[in-house]
Design goal:
alpha+beta; Nucleoside Triphosphate Pyrophosphohydrolase
Length: 127
């Protein structure tokens, strides 16, 4: 089974969001989402999250608590973690056309993928 990890990175009441490139394959193409990473062979969740945030956002993070998991519509096991930024200047990686610190209360309306989130994450955003 394919496994992905999602980094819910919060800083000063804002959440890190990325907008997937429009020419990307898959459901997230052209959409704002909470960044994550597909795990590589023999990689731990923590290693994948740290690598993913370096590649996607150009920041260093510390992995915090585990929040939830669910199975995506394509059958991927997706695990969510709260992450703490160690650096704050963001820059979008090659998979993203934009990246932004977004007020937490605005995230559910900006992320058109929020209907896929597990209940624990919806509660995190008071949905």
């Amino acid at each position: 089974m394919k496994i992905a990890v999602v980094a819910l990175v919060e800083h000063e009441g804002k959440i890190l969001l990325g907008k997937k490139r429009r020419d990307s394959e898959g459901y997230f193409a052209g959409k704002w989402h909470i960044p994550g990473e597909t795990m590589e062979d023999d990689e731990t969740d923590e290693e994948a999250l740290i690598r993913g945030m370096r590649e996607e956002a150009g920041i260093e993070i510390r992995v915090g608590r585990y929040l939830a998991q669910h199975i995506s519509p394509k059958g991927t096991l997706v695990r969510w973690y709260e992450c703490i930024p160690q650096t704050y200047d963001i820059s979008n990686g090659s998979d993203l056309e934009a990246i932004a610190w977004t007020p937490k209360k605005e995230v559910p309306s900006i992320c058109k993928t929020s209907h896929l989130w597990p209940d624990e994450i919806k509660r995190y955003f008071r949905m």
